Each structure stands twice: as structure tokens, then as C-alpha cells.
Amino acid sequence: MHGRKAYELVKEFADGEKGHLKIFNLLRQSSIHAECFFLFIVVWDVIIQNELFERVIEECNEHHNALQSLIRKMQEEGLEVQTARNADHYGALIHHLSLIRNKRCLMAYVYNRAEIIRELAWKVGLLHELPGEIQEKFSDSEEQYFKDHSKSLKSYMSQLSLDVNVDMVPPKDPYIKVRVLEDLGSGIILSDKSANFARHSMHFLKRTDAEQYIARGLMEELTG
Amino acid sequence: MANYFNIDDILAEEEFVPVVFHKAANGVIIDPSSETNSVEQGAKVELPLWLAQDLYLRQAISISVPACFNQRTILGDERITDLNDWLLDTHKPFNALSSEGVLTRLEIQADAACVDLKSRSPYFYEFGCKIAPLGSLKVTSSRIEESKQCRIHALSLSLGCLASRPSKSNWSNKIVSNWVGDKTIEILLLSAFKIRYKEILTKAYTAAYTTASKFLTLLTKEESNLYEAAQVSMSAFKKWRMGGPRLQRASVLGRKRRSFE
């Protein structure tokens, strides 16, 4: 059925948890080359599942060819393609609409993933590498996009000399009490002091300094 | 094209509508009963809305009201003059397509909050909003007056005022046809949403998760979004009242601690 593959692709995105990424549904060239031939047959089933994106593009090509052949047929019959309303015209129209639909599905899939990636860049990626389990779900161009976006954000902030990524609600107290959840060592230099951030140690830090570590789950805020 | 990238909008347009082709089309595999790669004139098939919509605007097909909104047997069918008669008439042969439509409407009139709309269509409202205007394109000025009367009629039906309904007049049969153009879809959607909206919010604020999970399976996509929004706002309110840490680990990284801890 027309547009079914594209629908499956979008559906797969919609079924995922909000704000979380799934593996980009595209066959990765490198992963195939690494496989030996007999393994290749075993993983073939998996690969078939994971190349929806390319399948949709293939389908687009099929539609395109069918559309062109119908129009050629009309031209050969000496009909005016713009005005003739015969069965070939409506066949071509259906292919045309399917093409547009497929394009929309593909665009929406890429666009919505890019939105999540931008959000990731804001939330966690500005100063640190992303955790591997998220990064491996990116396609190659998405990985580049993530890096570029973080980079331009950083350069924008350094031009402004203002961190625009901090909490929007002004703090009641500029300092908060935090507990370190993972060993960070003493390598970290904060704006006003340096300390040994050993695991389970407690510190009194500027909120703006602590925020990024809390977001990454390396520290937690203590209240009361 | 404000919703071009909207995932839900795309999925809503994938819902199927029954159509009849007025024009033949070559080189497409749409009609499963056809042996050649073409659709013949007069072929009845189900198409996804995104395809049907454009073909309809080009007058290549006509669209019937999809089963989940269909109410032909309530108002349109001449054989049925009284709803109660119809309900009591157990010998009436059940047509699978129209009986589903009737049941949707009857159930919504009875208690909209308990109807399983999700199984009808997970995008019940969005789908309906896309279907409803398709008919109005053809409404001529002479029919507008009739459709107003029809609205009043449908309203009195939806309020359950079956007794006060006007005696059999021919307009009720004339106006509501099987084809799209049925203005009562809008009323159906609105009344269903109003009743269900209230119920969803009440449940979201009060019910415990275990009791709510059964209820959640009945909700369409739009409604479960509403439900989630209500729950988030409730928990935000609780958090504000109780106090607590403002800053938290980013939710994308998952809530679990690392395994070695």
C-alpha cells in the first residue's frame, strides 16, 4: 500500500518515549563491512528491520519512475499532460501524492529527531561528551549536527560572556549544598574555588556552578 | 502547512476512509480486488486520508463517512423511523460497518466517558476534524438552512430528548446522507470531547495509577496527552507545596543509578 513504509517509520518514532531517541532507522555501511559472510546472513533479518528509512527512499524512486512512465505514455498518445484527465492522469496523480506524503514522513522523522538532539545539546552536551548509549543511536550526520550545535552554542555564550543555559528561576540563595555522587577528583575548577570532589563529600557551591553536574547526575542537591 | 512536521498530524492522516472512485486510474496498486495494476471506475476501496483528501478535492472520488463516525442508521436510513423501534428490533440484520457507527454514537450519548474511542481510532478528534470540513465544501446556501435544522435535531438527540423530537419530517432523511457532508460529525466530536474532558481531568487528579490504567486504554492520543499534562501539573503542585530540590538529573539520562552504586 502507498506510503505504508513511511507510516511505519513515523510510527516508530511516535511510539518511542518522549524526548528519547531510538537508533536511527538506517542501515549503516560500516556495520555491514565488518560482518563476515556467514554472519551477514544471520544478521540479514535484523538489517531488513533497520533500514526502513532507505526503504522509504527506494519507494520514492519507484513512485517517481511510475509517475514518469505514465506521463511519457500520455505524451506518446499525444495528450496535453496539463489538461488531460484520463486514467493515466489519475494514476500519475496518485503517485505524485504518494511521493509528497513520503517526503513529508521522511522530513518529519529527521526534523523531530533533530529537535531532540538540539534539546540534548542544551541539557547535557554543552560541556561534556554525551553518554555512549545515547550517542550510538545517532546517525553520522546527526552526530555532526550535535557537535556543531553545541559548538555554536558555546561560542555564542562566550561572546555574550553569559551562560544562557542556567535555571530560569532566580535562586533564593546563590549557594546550595550538594553531595557528590561519583568521584570527580580535584581537577575541576569552579568560578570561586577548587576542592577535592571525592564521592559522598558535601560542598557548598554556587548554584550556577553546580547545575551542570546535577543535570548529569554527578551531584545531587541537598535541601532542608 | 503549520503542522508539516507534526508527527501526530501525520499519523492522523493515515486513518482509512472508505471511498468510491469516479475516475479510473492506471498504474497503481490500490484496489486489492483488482487483478491488473489499476483502479476501475466505481471501485470501492479504503484509502488513507492523506490520499483520499486530495483525490476528493479533484473530484476523482467520493468519500463515505468512516465507520467510527457513521450514523446513517440513526438519522439517514429511511427504514428506521424511530430509534427505539430500531433498538427493540432484534431481527434486524446487522451490517458490520454501520452497526459500529451506530454503536459509537449511541454509546457516546449514553456515557461518553466510558466509550473505547482508542479502538475506533486513536486520532478520533483529529481525524474527525479533518473529515468534517470536507463535506462543507459542497454545501450550497439552500442546504445551510436545512443543516441548521439538522443541528438542532442532532442536539436534541444528543441531549437525550428523544421524546421531544419533531415528528417524522422528510428533511431528516434528506439531508443526512451516507456521504461526507454530514454536519453532525462536528457536534458528535464536541459533545464527546466535553464530557470526556471533564472525566479525564477528574481521574488524572484523583485516581491512583492502578485504577487509572484500565481507564487509560480507552483514551485517544489527544486525551492521553491531556491526562499526562494534568498529572504533571498535579505532581508539580505537590512538589511546590512540599518543597524539595529544584535541580535534578536530566531525565534523558534515565532515572536509574549506575549499577555499581
From TrEMBL, chain A:
Domain of life of the organism encoding this protein: Eukaryota
DNA replication complex GINS protein PSF1 C-terminal domain segment(s): 172-223
Main subcellular location of this protein, as a coarse class: nucleus
A Pfam family that the UniProt record links to this protein: PSF1_C
Database matches in InterPro entries: GINS_A, GINS_bundle-like_dom_sf, GINS_Psf1, PSF1_C
GO cellular-component term (any): GINS complex
Gene Ontology terms describing biological process: DNA strand elongation involved in mitotic DNA replication
Family matches, as SUPFAM superfamilies: GINS helical bundle-like
Domain GINS subunit residues, every copy: 71-160
Keywords of the record: DNA replication, Nucleus
Cell compartment(s), UniProt: Nucleus
Family: Belongs to the GINS1/PSF1 family.
The name this protein goes by in its record: GINS subunit domain-containing protein
From TrEMBL, chain B:
Listed CDD domains: GINS_A_psf3, GINS_B_Psf3
Protein name in UniProt: GINS subunit domain-containing protein
Family of this protein: Belongs to the GINS3/PSF3 family.
Entry GO CC: GINS complex
Main location: nucleus
UniProt entry keywords in alphabetical sequence: DNA replication, Nucleus
Organism for this UniProt entry: Gossypium anomalum
Stretches assigned to the GINS subunit domain: 107-240
Classification via Gene3D superfamilies: 1.20.58.2050
Domain of life: Eukaryota
Bilayer-spanning residue ranges: none
Pfam family, one: PSF3_N
Signal sequence coordinates: none
Localization of this protein: Nucleus
Domain DNA replication complex GINS protein PSF3 N-terminal as annotated: residue spans: 5-56
Single biological process term from Gene Ontology: mitotic DNA replication initiation
